[in-house]
């Protein structure tokens, strides 16, 4: 079943990322009432777990509209996306549109098409909030119609909100399970507009820690994955920690490729 990769990293869930997903699935709690994901750019763990009830959210308006529409009209969106030509002219014509002038369904089709054919799967906007990523050379493809229909059916189990992560964490209740995979916002990371206007930054780490400690005190089960940095470890000193080496290619160039340590924190037992 398809997943998108919008709010976390330009990488698709492939190679060592699949290894990370398997680790996350293994470390997820066996029982919980509702699945909650505040940075829902990929929803890979949601797809893997297939919970009966979910609350997911993101600040990305285009992503949220896509998830809502794929739940409502998956066949129409999938069919329309497959009917578009995979060429430069079509890509840049769609990219030039102001999505706010489109209907919700056409807006979802545009988002899906651009996400699949843009450079390295990057979601980036300029200061005016306009998507400005070039067409890729080694691109993905539109998932099969039936796969998108199945994804749409799964999305009907979820309530999708456009909101800041703190609002979604605050909505989690006892025995809910929160999974968070925030964009990497460490020191020295240049802001090129990835993940859209208002994306998670280093200054938000204190808000993140405050929100998660509050949810933990309410009896919420929490799983957090992030780059293995002292700034994160110091904020959750008593949580169970695991590390995993994963490949990163954030910049999209060979010189930026390498292996980094992913830190996986959880406030519940192993």
UniProtKB/TrEMBL annotation:
GO biological process, one term: methylation
Pfam families in UniProt: MethyltransfD12
UniProt KW keywords: Methyltransferase, S-adenosyl-L-methionine, Transferase
SUPFAM superfamilies: S-adenosyl-L-methionine-dependent methyltransferases
Keyword S-adenosyl-L-methionine: yes
EC number(s) per entry: 2.1.1.72
Record field: catalytic activity: a 2'-deoxyadenosine in DNA + S-adenosyl-L-methionine = an N(6)-methyl-2'-deoxyadenosine in DNA + S-adenosyl-L-homocysteine + H(+)
UniProt-recorded Gene Ontology molecular function terms: methyltransferase activity
Gene3D superfamilies, per the entry: Adenine-specific Methyltransferase, Domain 2, Vaccinia Virus protein VP39
Keyword Methyltransferase: yes
InterPro entries: Ade_MeTrfase_dom_2, DNA_methylase_N6_adenine_CS, M_m6A_EcoRV, MeTrfase_D12, SAM-dependent_MTases_sf
Enzyme class: transferase
Family to which the UniProt record says this protein belongs: Belongs to the N(4)/N(6)-methyltransferase family.
Protein name: Site-specific DNA-methyltransferase (adenine-specific)
Organism of provenance: Thauera mechernichensis
């Amino acid at each position: 079943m398809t997943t998108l990769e919008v709010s976390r990293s330009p990488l698709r869930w492939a190679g060592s990322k699949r290894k990370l997903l398997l680790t996350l699935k293994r470390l997820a709690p066996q029982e919980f009432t509702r699945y909650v994901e505040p940075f829902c750019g990929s929803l890979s763990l949601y797809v893997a777990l297939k919970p009966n009830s979910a609350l997911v959210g993101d600040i990305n308006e285009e992503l949220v509209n896509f998830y809502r529409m794929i739940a409502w009209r998956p066949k129409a969106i999938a069919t329309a996306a497959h009917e578009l030509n995979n060429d430069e002219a079509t890509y840049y014509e769609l990219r030039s549109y102001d999505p706010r002038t489109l209907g919700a369904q056409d807006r979802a089709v545009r988002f899906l098409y651009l996400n699949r054919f843009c450079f390295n799967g990057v979601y980036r906007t300029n200061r005016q909030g306009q998507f400005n990523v070039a067409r890729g050379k080694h691109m993905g493809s539109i998932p099969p119609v039936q796969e998108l229909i199945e994804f749409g059916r799964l999305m009907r189990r979820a309530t999708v909100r456009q909101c800041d992560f703190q609002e979604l964490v605050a909505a989690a209740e006892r025995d809910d399970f929160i999974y968070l995979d925030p964009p990497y916002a460490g020191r020295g990371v240049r802001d090129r507009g990835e993940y859209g206007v208002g994306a998670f930054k280093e200054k938000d780490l204190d808000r993140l820690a405050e929100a998660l400690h509050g949810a933990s005190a309410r009896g919420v089960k929490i799983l957090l994955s992030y780059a293995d940095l002292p700034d994160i470890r110091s904020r959750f000193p008593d949580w169970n920690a695991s590390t995993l080496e994963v490949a990163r290619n954030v910049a999209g160039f060979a010189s930026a490729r390498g292996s980094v340590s992913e830190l996986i924190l959880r406030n519940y037992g192993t």
